[in-house]
Each structure stands twice: as structure tokens, then as C-alpha cells.
């Protein structure tokens, strides 16, 4: 897969999946705009990539998306690929104990941000462009303790399908659904710096491939769905879950 000269936006690009996505596109010839609310982290990622730029993007802020769209047009003349990867997880626990503000934040970060990306970026995306968002296998196969998060990701999957129909045939819209990975998601969800061995074993036990996802696994899936090799795929939610959703 090559993306020579393609103009790519990656949200949540400072770490985890977003860092791997940014690296993957840049290594394959793309010009990457690494965005994150953590601008120092985004700058650290971009510093290692040829021709990459950065933008501080709070994905809950609609005006920031409009500003980013103008920057892309002024700098590179438009947008070819959007990896709407930014996400947030609440602390695991009973749904009834989760503050309403955190419930609302799940929608603002995980779902509404994809709507903002579609609203403000697609007017500057030529035919053949692609949007790929990061959902979660929890949006299809939920587990206790993360219900608001899983609900927001399920909505992201449906938003993907609806936008795919609206924007076809000019712009393809897909998403990926990763299984658990040891990224900042885990830290936010558990409050722990490192996953205990017994917790890791319990998670891996439910994954037929015998391990959790790696950021590179997700980046490869995002790049495939963005590539010409996937030019007939739209409205797809690609499970990057090592088989967790089989049963």
C-alpha cells in the first residue's frame, strides 16, 4: 500500500493507535497532519516523520475542526484521508455510578467528533477520498463495566454506515473495531499504570489469536481501508480483534 502525496489527517495522533497510524501513512509516502489535544505529544510524533505537521485539536470543539480544515486547504490544498481515531474511555464500573458528565463525554469524543470531521473535512475532499474512524469491538460485543463507552462506539459504527451511504460514490467511509490493547485506553479505564498479569491473562483468554491487539495491527487495518486496494469497500466495520467476536 502506497500513499505518495496523499494529504492525511490523524486525530488522537500523539500516542497508541494514532501514533502508529501516523507513522504508517508517513512511511508510505503520505503528508500527515498529526493532531491531538496533547500537542506536545503530537509534535514528538511528527518530529520523527518526514514532512509531517501538527495541530492542537480538541475533538469536542467544532470550531477547531473548521480551523483545521482551513489549515489543510491553505497548506496542502485539500484532504484525501481522515483517520478519525481520537477516543476516550471512562473508568470501568457500574453504569449507574458513572457521572452524567462522563456519559456525555463519551458521545462528544467518540461519536460526535466523527460527525464534526465529516461536516468540516468532506467539502475539501476530492472524489476517491476516504474516512476511517476507530470504533471498538465493544461496540459489537459489549462487556460489563464500560457500557457508556461501548454505546458510543456502537453509535460510531452506525454513523459510519449512514455516512457511507450519504457520501457514496465519491467518498468512502469505514471504521475499525479493535479489541483491547495496552494503550492509554487501559490506563483511563482502570486507573492502573500497568496491566496485572491476571487481568492480561483473563483478557487474552477470550481472544482466539492468543494476544491483545497491537497499535500496528490497527494502523494496518486503517491503511488498508484507506487504500486503493479497498476501493470497493464502504460502510465496513473491520474487526481487528483476533477473533474475540466469533462467539
Summarize the structure in words.
The chain has eight helices and seven strands; from the N terminus they run E-H-E-H-E-H-E-H-E-H-E-H-H-H-E. The protein has one domain: NAD(P)-binding Rossmann-like Domain (Rossmann fold). The model has no long low-confidence stretch (mean pLDDT 93). The chain starts with 6 loop residues before the first strand and ends in a 7-residue tail after the last strand. With 247 residues, it is α/β, with parallel strands linked by helices. The chain has a seven-stranded parallel sheet with strand order 3-2-1-4-5-6-7, sandwiched between helices.
Q: Tags for this entry?
A:
alpha/beta; 8 helices; Rossmann fold; globular; seven-stranded parallel beta sheet; 247 residues
Briefly, what is this?
The chain is of the alpha/beta class and 247 residues long.
List the helices and strands and how they pair.
Layout: E1 7-10, H1 16-27, E2 31-36, H2 39-46, E3 53-56, H3 62-76, E4 81-84, H4 100-121, E5 129-134, H5 147-167, E6 171-178, H6 184-190, H7 197-205, H8 215-226, E7 237-240
Parallel strand pairs: 1-2, 1-4, 2-3, 4-5, 5-6, 6-7
Helix pairs in contact: 1-8, 3-4, 4-5
Distance between the termini: 32 Å
Task: Write down the overall mean pLDDT.
Answer: 93
User: In the CATH scheme, what's the topology name?
Assistant: Rossmann fold
Q: Tell me the series of helices and strands, N- to C-terminal.
A: EHEHEHEHEHEHHHE
Shape call: globular
Parts with pLDDT < 50 across at least 5 consecutive residues:
none
Q: Decide which structural class fits the backbone.
A: alpha/beta
Number of separate domains: 1
Question: For this structure, what is the CATH class?
Answer: Alpha Beta
Q: Walk across the major sheet and give the strand order.
A: 3-2-1-4-5-6-7
Oligomer: single chain
Query: Roughly what fraction of the amino acids lie in strands?
Result: 5-15%
- State the helicity in percent bands: 40-55%
Q: Could you state the CATH homologous superfamily?
A: NAD(P)-binding Rossmann-like Domain
Output the number of helix runs: 8
What is the level-2 CATH architecture name? 3-Layer(aba) Sandwich
Number of strands: 7
Measured on Cα atoms, how large is the radius of gyration?
17 Å
Largest sheet data: 7 strands, parallel
